[in-house]
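Incident log, entry 3
Record: CRAL-TRIO domain-containing protein (305 residues)
Problem: checksum mismatch between cached and fresh output.
Input:
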Amino acid sequence: MEVDNYGPVVKMGSGHELRFEDDADFEESYKERAVNDLRETPERRAEALEELRRLIREEKKLYLPTDETTELYLLAFLRVCKFYPDSAFKRVKFLYKLRQKNPKYCNDLLPSLEKNVFAQNILTVLPSRDQHGRRILITECGQRWKVKNCTLTEIFRGVELVIEAAILEPRTQVSGTVLLVDFAGLTINHVWQFTPNFAKLVLDWIQYSMPARLKEVHIVNQPYIFNMVFAMFKPFMQEKLRNRMLLHGYDHSSLLAHLDAKCLPTKYGGLMDIETDQGIDLWNLLCYYEDNYKVTNEFGYKKKK
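Fresh output:
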């Protein structure tokens, strides 16, 4: 990771760069998508923000500033709910109640405390968006995951940190995210790390509280025993998410039918000549925003005295 005139950047492969964007002015294609997919207009955005701020202020036990410093954060909730303030507020409450009930997974979410999972090279954010402008996160939960070195809790916390950075990108708020989960090398020892309670937590976070548009989940290189993991998640999965989950096995052509080869590494059949082994660079990039995480870590329901 290095810092240039435009901010922190991770150089990946030959000519590829990963940086988190914060510019609110984006291309015409994103503006059209915001209008057509999210019902977003300047008037509706202003009205929805005003109403969401009012609802948050009335939730007395919730600490979440409603001034201009949190406008982009609140827009993430509104965009995922297509600018319906009541739905966005419901998602806000669900998120902070989930965090309150699950401190092991959600408290003290700071990049500086989670170096280990990134050192395992389990998590990769690809430098290029897909053909629909979506951010792609790769999670390698097989060969790269040594259960003696890294816990499932650490992996989930790492994913939370990445998503929190991505949701503050206006383009990602509009176009959404894609999750690619690589289960190559999954063993029974990995399967034993999963529990129904953990599956429910993850799906509650994704489906009811995460302020991000998860557009697709691609499962690749999954062996037969993956079915044991999937069986734990399936009872808690809503139809909307089930329809967005695609299992490709070892068939790269199946994956490429959904994601453009230009945005995928060669090991998944893509054209991008990069390795998914720069976890520490990603960690350093997130650490650059440590102060922002410290601020958002203070948000939530007040502890009972």
